[in-house]
Design brief:
By secondary structure, this protein is mostly beta strands. It has one helix at about 55-60; strands spanning about 5-10, 15-25, 30-40, 60-65, 70-75. Strand 1 and strand 2 form a beta hairpin. The termini are far apart.
Length: about 80
């Protein structure tokens, strides 16, 4: 009832989503507390579970290893 609807724009165009505060987001052993996510239909014509935005990737200190197609958490990097 308190979720806010709004439109976001990206490479694929514009989509209506709603914003939801969640207690945490966990990837393997890494956990981020008190996150806000956007939820939409994500009907792109192929199977997808979610999209990680640049704001999250930067704050989570993620390195993108394109050679191995891996996301690597870099906890050695100081917080910015």
């Amino acid at each position: 009832m308190t979720d806010r609807l709004y439109a976001i724009r990206g490479v694929g165009g514009t989509e209506v989503v709603f914003s939801r505060a969640i207690e945490y987001l966990q990837i393997d052993q890494y956990r981020w507390e008190q996150c806000t996510i956007e939820v939409g239909s994500m009907d792109y014509g192929f199977n997808i579970n979610g999209i990680l935005g640049m704001d999250f990737l930067l704050s989570a200190q993620v390195n993108i290893n394109l050679h191995c197609l891996l996301l690597e958490i870099n906890r050695a990097c100081p917080e910015s």
